[in-house]
Structures are given as C-alpha cells and as structure tokens.
Amino acid sequence: MIVLGVETSCDETAVAIVKDGKTILSDVVYTQINIHEKYGGVVPEVASRKHVQKFISVFDEALKRANLTPKDIDLVAVTTHPGLIGSLLVGINAARAFALCHKIKCIDINHLTGHIYANYIESDFEFPVMALVVSGGHTELILMEKHYDFKILGQTLDDAIGEAYDKVGRVMGLSYPAGVKVDNLAFTGKHSYKLPLVYLDKNDYNFSFSGIKSAVLNVINQAKMKNEDIIVEDLACSFQESVVQVLVDKTINAAKEYNVKHIIMAGGVAANKGLRKSMSEAVAALEGVKLTYPSLKYCTDNAVMIAVSGYFKEKLNA
Ligand code: KG4
Ligand code: ZN
Fold first, then answer.
1. Section 211-221 average pLDDT
2. For 187-192, which contacts have Cβ atoms below 8 Å and span 24 or more sequence positions?
3. Whose CA is closest to atom 2 on ligand 1?
4. Relative to the alpha carbon of 187, which ligand is closest?
5. pTM for the predicted model, two decimal places
6. How many other CB atoms are there within 10 angstroms of residue 145's CB atom?
7. Cα of 11 to ligand 2 centre, how many Å?
8. Ligand 1 neighbour 42 (Cβ under 6 A)
C-alpha cells in the first residue's frame, strides 16, 4: 500500500510517500521556523498563508522524489486535528482535492497518533506499549494494547512541556523555538536552583508545568530586583532536570502498572538529550522493556509519521 501523507498542523508544510508503513519513498518538509522566530512564537495567520504559498511545491517535490505519479498512490492520509485551524485547513483541502480528482481514498489522521507512529519507522511495536507524547502542544501518557488502539491515561492540565520549554527559554532571552537551546545550555550547567516538582496526585498520570514555568520567572525577576546575575546554564539545568524527573517517574510508574513491553517517546521534546538519557537509564532498570524514540528529524513535525499512521488505520479499518 503506497500512502501519501500530508501534515500542515502548525509551522511545517510536509508531504511524504511511504510504502507499507515502513519504506520511505519521499519525505519533504518545509519549515517556517525562521519566519516565526522574530515574533517569539508561531503566528497562526502567517503560518496559514505560508502553507498556502508552499504547499504545491512541497507536494510536487514529494511525488518527484518518489518518482511516482498520482495513479501510483493507494491512499491519502492527512492531519485533521489537533492543530492551528487555518494551517490544518490548507493541508486538508489540498489533500482532499487531490484525492477527489484522482479517485483515491482520503482518511483523517490525529497528529498525536502520527507522533507515536514516528517510532514505527525505525522500530516495530511490542505490545502493550506505553507512549509518552511530549510536543509543543501536548503532554500525554497513552497506553496501546494493539495497533491503532489508544487509551489516554493522563495529560497536562495546563501548559504542554514543549510550550513550557519555549516560554522558559524566552524569559532567558533565547529565540523561538527555545527547547533545543535550553537543552544544550542545561548540559553546560549544574542543578543549583531549587524548582518545584509537580506530581499532582501521586497515583494519577496527569501533568502540570505552569508552576515550574512561573518559578523560573520568579527566579529571574527576583534576581533583577536585587541586581544579581542569573547563571543561565544552571537555571536551564535545574529546569530540565526537574521536568525530566517528573516525565520519567510518571512514565515508569505507568509502565509498571500496565506491565508494558515497550516504552515510546514521541513529539518534539522526545529530541531532548536530558530526557533521552534519564529515560534510557530508568528503562534499563526494568527487565524486558524496550525503549524507542524517533531519530531527531522524525521527532518534530513531518508527514512520514502521518503516512505510517494512515497505513495502520486503513489496514486495521480503525
Ligand atoms: O512535536 P512538535 O514539532 O510540535 C507540536 O506538535 O507541538 O514539537 C515542537 C516542540 C517545541 O516546543 C520545541 O521547543 C520542542 O518541541 N523541542 C524541544 C527540543 N527540540 C524540540 N524541547 C526540549 N528539548 C529539545 N531538544
Ligand atoms: Zn507535532
């Protein structure tokens, strides 16, 4: 089954063609990051317009690189939610129009499902799977007992983890998207600032990151008032170690409770070096549990993950 995936939910215009959920025939991503950088975050109206400008060339390039014509495509899979509505609509309308013209079936894909299936590109799933989805807009723990079966065990009650990274980075004077910059700084600093660890109810799998974000802001504001210098590397390290500890602890608890065989990390923050390291150490202590996270280019938004999801959704009639 040759699936053409389309992803325009935020600030990446992406089209990819994947055969049988595994073989990548083409993978084209146009990122708008440098456009939004100067505003300190994604400007929805600008993002939608840029998708309109870029979509056709990204789409044509994907067919060209795969050396295919429309008649070779068996299925179109497009991200329909969640995301910025103006951005989503560009991809949805284009994908559906293409599918209609060429009499190809077009199916809807949840963006978070896509992030989870980014793991399948390089590794098969061993069920039950516990997926930690950590992206710019979401933080969720999801149990999968079989393919295309998702049970949300917990989620953030306020800020998403990526959003917290971006906001904390912004107050430290780092440009958007700040996650990777905070991550790099953290590795050069020490955990010298005391920040809160928010576990909420110990027995649930929900998260909350707005408190730690405010705590970082307080540290900076108080230092300014007292005319003291902030050691940015140390603050980045303290923030990173605190949020990573909560993410790892909750994931490991859930993995134990549900006796999973495979822990998956997905979404932009799965690129985080501190999270990868701590999760690897914690999973190594569990017997018979495998850990996977996508390679860096498949952590952030792409259309390969949407095509892979489409393959499973269609194959299983999910
Ligand atoms: O999954 P993604 O591309 O977008 C959404 O679906 O929301 O994730 C983007 C997010 C941004 O908040 C970005 O700062 C964060 O992922 N991010 C990181 C790292 N690389 C990307 N956060 C922490 N450490 C990183 N290395
Ligand atoms: Zn995403």
1. 95
2. 187/237, 187/273, 187/274, 188/233, 188/237, 189/231, 189/232, 189/233, 189/234, 189/235, 189/236, 189/237, 189/238, 190/233, 190/234, 190/237, 191/234, 191/237, 191/238, 191/241, 192/231, 192/234, 192/237, 192/238
3. 268
4. 1
5. 0.96
6. 12
7. 9
8. no
